[in-house]
Amino acid sequence: LFLVEGPRDALNLVQSGIPATAIIGSQNWSEHCAHLVLTLNPKLVVLAFDPDSAGEKATKTVQKSLKNLIPMVKLPLDKDRDPGNLTRAEKSALKQKLKL
To answer: For 58-81, what is each residue's pLDDT tens digit?
Structure first.
């Protein structure tokens, strides 16, 4: 399950068959959100927040919240990239890499 900041980010991934959900803003993570993610029972959570200071803060917050509860990886993104503008080729490569 990819966690992203906004609906556009999630929609771009979902349209390519990648399970994703938006936390609707980098500062909106809560223990309630953690519970909702865990009820989905994902095998892996991919932290795919924007590569800016807000996204980095969200990554650290979610990592702390879900630590020891579920496997997580951070999607490395260049400074000018975010999940909402990944190309089809990039999404296809992600699917292959993560065996989605």
So the answer is: 999 999 999 999 999 999 888 888
* Spatial contact of 69 and 98, defined as CB atoms under 8 Å apart: no
Q: What is the pTM of this model?
A: 0.92
Mean of pLDDT values over 1-30: 94
Which of 73, 53, 50, 78 minimizes the C-alpha distance to 63?
73
